[in-house]
Amino acid sequence: MAKVLIVEDEEGLLEGLEHNFKFEGYEVLTARNGHEGLKLALKQEPDLVVLDIMLPEKDGYTVLKELRQRHRSMPVLVITARNFEADVLKGFELGADDYLTKPFSVKELLARAKRLVAHGASSARAVMTTYTFGDVEVRFEPREVLKTDKAVALSYKEFELLKYLIEHRGRTVSREELLEEIWGVDEDLGVTTRTVDTHVSNLRSKLGAGFEQPFIVAVHKVGYKFVEPAGAVSRP
Q1: What pTM value is reported for the model?
Q2: Is the CATH number of domain 3-118 3.40.50.2300?
Q3: Is the dihedral of CA 185, 189, 190, 192 positive or negative?
């Protein structure tokens, strides 16, 4: 059963969309503001996000931008009362997959949603299963790491951290984001960003020999970035 997240603050529209999606066989999650919507999207990883732009607490553009920083391929269908070309273009530039202006036909919305969910499912089947950089080969499906063709023992969290940084290679990832995504906690629960630093240090120690430049670089006062070495190869 496909999962849809609807982020909409207009109560009547939200209830109507929820009813129609459930009638079509979808599992439906709902949020009434941008902050709650982003949190649910990151935690639940729905097959589609139906996102209003004019939202309280955090507008839809901000939600879309922050969502795309962490999930590049999650399908997002933007709905809005604003029918200006600049607004439509801004939505697409931030990573929207489709755009509908209010008022819209529910039948058309459901048809577009069905297409986006199907496209997202086919993309998910083609996700990277192996990533090779230098003399290191990371096999995501069996959760194995080889260096010079020899197995390297990584802890569960070390592997998850390496995987997350590779998936977001080229982007600076904050320590706070890593705590939330890998450990599922924040500093308020007593787990500090030093935990992230320790695990990064372990990865460098276990995999870094032979590299002229570190593949995980520290960004001062922010976090870490996986810098893709020349010749790196990803395979579906």
Answers
A1: 0.61
A2: yes
A3: positive
